[in-house]
Amino acid sequence: MKIIAVIPARYEASRFPGKLMKILGEKTVITTTYKNVVETGLFDEVFVATDSDIIFNEIENNGGKAVMTGQHETGSDRIAEAVQNIDCDIVINVQGDEPFLKLEPLQQLIEVFKEDENQEISLASLKIKLTEKEEIENPNNVKVITDNNGFALYFSRSVIPFHREISYDISYFKHIGVYAFRKHALLQFSKLEMKPLEISEKIECIRYLEYGMKIKMIETNFIGVGIDTPEDLEKARKIISE
């Protein structure tokens, strides 16, 4: 299998515009993410997919590979456009604002497809256990529930499952937005119309479920530093300095 990584990168982030071009250590956030993904050694190629000349030039000027795309509602749609003419079998979507992604969870996602002999799985992604009530109830944390084989049943910003039977201990899991796609499933995804559940929740992977595709969830203990706010950027800078 030919495995590539694509980092969708939009300049005008709604909560923190221009965050990918902020300085983190000696490099910008997007360049730090790109270099870290390359250095895992897991991928045949790594690309940044962007609609911004600023980000495109930043990557190219630092010796990286970038692809210009049109404007898209979701990162997956942006990646689908970027990989149309790239020869590959598996596409890993790494978020541009997650500069500290580790090797192990990426390896776990790749193994899903190596073990999927019947090619039943369209998409694999990560989940991490939540234990704090505040984190469980936070709508910015997308929760996921799975069947006994680890396939996603539903994603929601609400608390799922609802803990009605308090005598029974239940676990809650947060979805981490790192995806691994079969290329043909990704291209199919980009042609599918958004349905009511995806529109309501603003969670793109619900589209796969609404059209009957299988999403394999892998539990990880990886805790990244997603840079969504200026405060997150300061946390990341502290990590770099240490």
From TrEMBL:
Gene3D superfamilies, per the entry: Spore Coat Polysaccharide Biosynthesis Protein SpsA, Chain A
EC number(s): the record gives 2.7.7.38
The pathway to which it is assigned is: Nucleotide-sugar biosynthesis; CMP-3-deoxy-D-manno-octulosonate biosynthesis; CMP-3-deoxy-D-manno-octulosonate from 3-deoxy-D-manno-octulosonate and CTP: step 1/1
Localization in the cell: Cytoplasm
Taxonomic superkingdom: Bacteria
**What molecular functions are annotated in GO for this chain?**
3-deoxy-manno-octulosonate cytidylyltransferase activity
Name of the top EC class for this enzyme? transferase
- Which reaction is this enzyme known to catalyze? 3-deoxy-alpha-D-manno-oct-2-ulosonate + CTP = CMP-3-deoxy-beta-D-manno-octulosonate + diphosphate
Q: Which UniProt keywords apply?
A: Cytoplasm, Lipopolysaccharide biosynthesis, Nucleotidyltransferase, Transferase
Q: Does the keyword Lipid metabolism apply?
A: no
| Primary site of residence | cytoplasm
Q: What Gene Ontology cellular-component terms does the record carry? A: cytosol
Q: Which GO terms describe its biological process?
A: CMP-keto-3-deoxy-D-manno-octulosonic acid biosynthetic process; lipopolysaccharide biosynthetic process
Q: Which family does it belong to?
A: Belongs to the KdsB family.
Q: What does this protein do?
A: Activates KDO (a required 8-carbon sugar) for incorporation into bacterial lipopolysaccharide in Gram-negative bacteria.
What this protein is called in its record is 3-deoxy-manno-octulosonate cytidylyltransferase
Q: Which organism is it from?
A: Chryseobacterium soldanellicola
